[in-house]
Structure formats: structure tokens, C-alpha cells
Amino acid sequence: MGRRIGSPAPHTRPRRRGPTRRRLAAALVLFALPVASAGCASAGGDTDRQGAPGGEEPSATGNTANSEAPESPDDDAPRDAEPFEGSIEDFYVVPDGIERLGPGDLIRYQVVEEDGDARTVRVMYRSEDASGRPRAVTGVVTHPNDPAPEGGWPVVSYGHGTTGMAPRCAPSRDPQPSPTWGIEAVGASSDYVGLGPEGELHPYLSRLSEGNSMIDIVTAAGQLPGAGAGTEWVAVGHSQGGHAALAARELAAERAPELHLAGTVAIAPGVATDESYGLDEDLMTVLTMMQLHGAATERDDIDPADYMTAEALDKASVFDSGCVEEIIDALTGVVADGPFEVDPWVTEPAAAALRANLVARAGVDAGPVLLASGGADLTVVPQRVSATFDRLCELGQSVHLVEVPEADHGSIIPAAFDDIESFLDAALNEPEAVIDDCAS
């Protein structure tokens, strides 16, 4: 097992300068790798800390205390979504009245690409953050143009890797077709809460925000005219998206009981960020800074200034507008010196917020899991994935572990592609054929 960050608190002590930028650049750029190599689909206004208006705290069950059925729609609420004819920039301006919509309700859509086989559409839909506040979330849906089978196409909800926290870092602003990993399906890729819409900020690695986003885009795909999406779905994610996929798995039954989650794939998932495995300590420090900055958008009792050095706080302003390369350039020095006055992993209220984002800490009845790991991955080191496999097995989950010794954080995607395709096909069509390595 890895060493838990905080005892002693490695974030708070000065460290020797070394090839920190080189390590961070390699790690963070790989963390943000696009999924193009995995194959494409088969065919705001003023806010609180750039988040959203105040809301209630999360309930102990996972989703939030005020995530009840929406109020009855009125004339001010967006409904009966139609094609958006405005500019790309205007697409990301959130309309009034989204609080009167239900989770996953489609707000607007905009066709970005169409050929004889498939259509790719930019979407905006209603979701919720960790405080239960309604949020407009953007993403991309790609669907076959062929007639859907009886019951509709299955949906592959894909979670992308780290791109940043600012609206301009949203993948849907420069969209690619959403991947379906070799199966005939509708692909749905969420930007996650806070990425995309103007004037917002992404609560990085927020279990509830990410999980809700991945679930609700499945509902939104079902409302997209011509998509033919059914209620059967699978969750797939790489890196940060692996964390999001596992979060969605834990939340799915309660959040969307009308949908059926058949299986979950987490490729080199960004999990167990409370632990360090040596070579990834600098990266874990950056991820903690990002989580802390994002948590402040969801909780009024968290202020990064209570934890970070003055220099680190100043450099962390890059999160508000910069994407991965800008983040690397801004944080290299402060990570080497130690960015924290006090360790947020052991100091409340940040400690509770960060722990609430951990996944694979509870067993759920939500279908099997595939975990994929590269033996040469220095970003999500294989020990991190192995520890997650052990945890899930101890929790009584069905898990297939795919380990590719020569693969790194990027090449694990094509290296594990055939295993992922086979897993998804079995999970959707022949569940008893799914390999369970926990049982061996």
C-alpha cells in the first residue's frame, strides 16, 4: 500500500528542487490525453467563487439533501430543447430557469459533425454539484444514423482525463466524436460540472459532481432527437475520467433508477489521491491543490488561503483561466518548495471534503468493473490501481484486472482496447461471461 499523505505532512515541508517541471509536464500532459486513439463512435452569470449559488450540504447517502424532484416548469424554464442556432460562445451561456428541470434534462444541442454513419452533437443538460445545486453541464453525444434496435442503443458514458478547471478547457469546445470502444452504441462524453459554461469553475475530482455529470448525460442522450438511446448504459473513463466512472457507478442506482448500468471501465484511474507511491508525490501535490481550489466552489466553509502559502495561493489563480500547460508552467516552483502551510488532508474542513471525493471505498450492486493498468505508467502508477483492485475485491465487487507491463499512461488505452471491447460486449449481452479476478 502507498503512504498516506499527511503523516508526516510532506506537502508542508520544503523539498529539494529537481527535475520537477519535467515530471509534472509528463504527468499532467498524460493525465489529459485525449481518447482519439481508442476509436470513435461506431457509426453563466455571476457565481459564488465561480461555482454556483449557495446550496445545502451533501447527505450521507451520496447525492444531496436538496436533490428532490424539480418544481413544476413555468414559462421561465428552458424546456423542449431545440437545436441551438447561435454561436459557439453563446452556446455556453447558461439560460435562466434550469433549477426547474430534472436531472439530465436536455437544455439545448448543436450539431457539430454529421456523415453517413453518425452524428455528433454538442449538448447542454441539467445536473447537480456536490452541494445539490442545479448546474448546466455541457458535453458531446455521438449517435449512429441507423435505426435503433428495439429498446434503443446502449449508451457509453465516457469520462475524459484532466484538461484543467476553467470553462475554456472543456473538451466539447473543440469536440471529437464520443468513443464507444468498438460496440454499437450512443457515445456520451460529459465535460463535468463547471467545465464549459461561462463564469464557472470545475470542482476537480469531486465525486458527486463528476458522477452526476456522467449519469445525467445518459438521460440527456435519451432526450436528444434522433439519437435512439435506450436505458442500458456503461461507464468508461481514463485517468480523471476513471475516477469519474467509478463515482458514477457508486451513485447510479440512487440517482437514476430508471437506467441500468451494465458495467464500468476505469483505465489508469486517478484514485486514492490521499496516498503517494514515491515517484508520483509531486503530481499528488498538484492534484490536492486542484481539489482544494475546486472544493471552495462547492463549500462556503473552505478557503484555500487557510491552507496554502501566499506564493502558492497567488500561483493557483491559474486554475481560474488556464488549462494543463498553463498549470504546469505556473506551479512548478511552488510544488518544489511545498505549497501548503497546513496539510489539507489532515486539517478540517478541507480534510472531510477531500475524503468525500475518494472512490472505491464502498461496495455497490452495480455490475462488474474492469480496471486497466500500465506497468510503465508513472502518472497513475500500477501500485495505485492494484490497491484499488484489492479494495474492490474486499468489498465483494466483481473486478477484471487488465495489466499491460510495457504500457504507460497514454499507451494503456490502445493496449487495453480489445479487453475493454470484450468486457463491454459481455457486460451488455452476456454478463455471466465477464471475468471476475476477485473470485480467482
Explain this structure.
- The chain is an alpha/beta fold.
- The chain has two domains: 3-29 and 273-355, no CATH class; 32-272 and 358-439, Alpha/Beta hydrolase fold, catalytic domain (Rossmann fold).
- Helix content is 28%, strand content 18%.
- The strands form two sheets. The protein has a nine-stranded mixed β-sheet with strand order 2-3-4-6-5-7-8-10-11, with helices on both faces.
- Strand 10 (369-374), helix 9 and strand 11 form a beta-alpha-beta unit.
- Helix 1 (20-31) runs antiparallel to helix 7 (324-337) and helix 3 crosses helix 4 (240-255).
- It is globular.
How many helices? 11
Q: Separation of termini?
A: 21 Å
Question: Which second-level CATH architecture of the largest domain applies?
Answer: 3-Layer(aba) Sandwich
Work out the radius of gyration. Answer: 20 Å
Helicity, in percent?
25-40%
| Share of β-strand residues | 15-25%
Taken together, the total number of domains comes to 2
Strands side by side in the biggest sheet: 2-3-4-6-5-7-8-10-11
Shape descriptor: globular
Mean pLDDT: 86
